[in-house]
Amino acid sequence: MTETDTPIIRTAIIDDHEAIRLGVGAALQQHAAGFVSVVSSHETVDAFLADTVDADVVMLDLSLGDDSDPKDNVERLAEVGYRILVYSIADNIRLVRRALAGGADGICRKAEPIAQTIEALKSVAEGQMVLSQEILAAIESDTSYVAASLGPRERQVLSLYVAGLEIPEVAQQLYITENSVKEYLKRIRVKYTQVNRPANNKLELFRRAIEDGIIPPVERRN
Length: 222
What we know:
This protein is of the alpha/beta class. It has helices spanning 18-31, 45-50, 70-79, 93-102, 114-125, 133-140, 152-162, 167-174, 178-194, 202-211, and strands at 9-14, 36-42, 57-60, 83-88, 106-109. It has a five-stranded parallel β-sheet, with helices on both faces.
């Protein structure tokens, strides 16, 4: 498929700073013309949703002027079908975790080159999860977060399972029985539930693992 055959990524920007909205919009139009189209820019999620914008990916700042919760913002956007690339200085790991818990598809720092931002947009539009090693390292080193206190074997099982292996494959990798894998997964879900971080399905387990810095960045397709 040639670049001209690639579907245009309809991109919306939600940021309370006008300079960011205008600057990023202009940069994307200049460097990604032909495969990225900026279709709207808004200061808040409320304003964006009120306009019923036809977009594929929303670039969402973590800290908006209305003091809205990143988790709530991401959940509201995801609920109506948007993919969400958090576009932020990302210096507040608590807010990064909130956005990931809400279902954000990726995190991109404002300090990164525009070419890297464009690649992140492409990946998120294709259904991939975008997280840098830097973000994962910051998450892992954040001792103020209430983790699920998983044991070493539970972390191994979770890492393999959410990376795409099925239960028989996890068992084979770790030289344990399939029933043991199932029991570990059951315990993992219970531990996350106990700290008010639900993990009722594989997608939620994937997000909990990312929040805890358990797995490396991977490409995930829905």
